[in-house]
Amino acid sequence: MTLHAELDLTRGAFHLTATVDVPAGGVLAILGPNGSGKSTVLGCLAGLLDPDTARITLAGRILTDSTRGVRVPPHQRGVGLLAQDPLLFPHLSVLDNVAFGPRSRGARRAEAARVARHWLAEVGAAELAGRGPAQLSGGQAQRVAVARALAGEPGLLLLDEPLAALDVDAAPALRGLLRRVLRAEARTAVLVTHDPLDALTLADQVAVLSGGRVVEAGPTRAVLSAPRTAFTARIAGLNLVEGTATGTGLRTAAGEPITGMLAEDAVPGEPAVAVFAPGTVAVYPEGQAPVGSPRNTVPATVGTLEPHGSLVRLRATGAGWAAGIAADLTPAAVAELGLDPGSPVRLAIKATTVLIHPAP
């Protein structure tokens, strides 16, 4: 079912203005820092919050239209909500929890039980039907919550960081389950997450919120591979430097030039960002000349050294655009260079690895 929402809401000092469009069967991931308005958007779509001005339609059916005084209550919207907390009814068995949706829509007990058993089997939890919620692990409870959300046959599924409370062993399995169910059922869904892996594996499109406004939007891989904001770059694991586009790259607010490759939509003289991966940043001890002739070099200080998979991620401090830059090194390279927090270094980045994109 196609979702279209135009939202305008003020709560105290916070103001949200956002437009959300999801095609039938599509999955939109909403990313953003804490306080950016992600959960507020879900609350408006679910009917739990009443925006000052809004128009929300699902498959052409009006759920909210402030100008016409239309506000369909949450239980009549055909919207399912899956949150971090499974919120299972503690006094009902697993089977009855999942059957609750069909029963609330008027299904007879036997039919509701049939639907519940179907969805429990779909999420790999059929053997849990007779248990109570207190007898379930966190991963099991969230599987049951997925089954309950889907058993209600929602036209729109809202996912509010459903994997955030799970341990590292349970989260991958549930992520795979959600991907399979969303694809197989062609469910229209909106996912709020802080994890780029959730966005990459589950969502077709991404919208990035900041300060109550959408600052980036588009296909998931395109947005995360070419971020336009510091937040998106950080969750995508990329470096980002802000400034103004020039004919050869970017000039920072302090006037420092960075040479790079301009994207087709980057316009010299307009605000822009330089984006490059930590793996493209070479690190040299102070006084040692960089190998080759990299166009971009800058003095820095080692701020932190942290494990990053099989590599060590160096986070730089210093004046100018070196501050916050990340570089990925092998443990052997860190030892050979004698790097420690506080060590003076020089960073070098080849111009061909730096992409210049318009700022939002």
Automatic annotation (TrEMBL):
<dbReference type="InterPro" id="IPR005116">
    <property type="entry name" value="Transp-assoc_OB_typ1"/>
</dbReference>
<keyword id="KW-0813">Transport</keyword>
<feature type="domain" description="ABC transporter">
    <location>
        <begin position="2"/>
        <end position="236"/>
    </location>
</feature>
<dbReference type="GO" id="GO:0005524">
    <property type="term" value="F:ATP binding"/>
</dbReference>
<keyword id="KW-0547">Nucleotide-binding</keyword>
<keyword id="KW-0472">Membrane</keyword>
<keyword id="KW-1003">Cell membrane</keyword>
<dbReference type="InterPro" id="IPR050334">
    <property type="entry name" value="Molybdenum_import_ModC"/>
</dbReference>
<dbReference type="InterPro" id="IPR003439">
    <property type="entry name" value="ABC_transporter-like_ATP-bd"/>
</dbReference>
<dbReference type="GO" id="GO:0016887">
    <property type="term" value="F:ATP hydrolysis activity"/>
</dbReference>
<keyword id="KW-0500">Molybdenum</keyword>
<protein>
    <submittedName>
        <fullName>Molybdate transport system ATP-binding protein</fullName>
    </submittedName>
</protein>
<keyword id="KW-1278">Translocase</keyword>
<feature type="domain" description="Mop">
    <location>
        <begin position="291"/>
        <end position="358"/>
    </location>
</feature>
<dbReference type="InterPro" id="IPR004606">
    <property type="entry name" value="Mop_domain"/>
</dbReference>
<dbReference type="InterPro" id="IPR027417">
    <property type="entry name" value="P-loop_NTPase"/>
</dbReference>
<dbReference type="InterPro" id="IPR003593">
    <property type="entry name" value="AAA+_ATPase"/>
</dbReference>
<keyword id="KW-0067">ATP-binding</keyword>
<dbReference type="InterPro" id="IPR017871">
    <property type="entry name" value="ABC_transporter-like_CS"/>
</dbReference>
<dbReference type="Pfam" id="PF00005">
    <property type="entry name" value="ABC_tran"/>
</dbReference>
<dbReference type="Pfam" id="PF03459">
    <property type="entry name" value="TOBE"/>
</dbReference>
<dbReference type="GO" id="GO:0015689">
    <property type="term" value="P:molybdate ion transport"/>
</dbReference>
<dbReference type="InterPro" id="IPR008995">
    <property type="entry name" value="Mo/tungstate-bd_C_term_dom"/>
</dbReference>
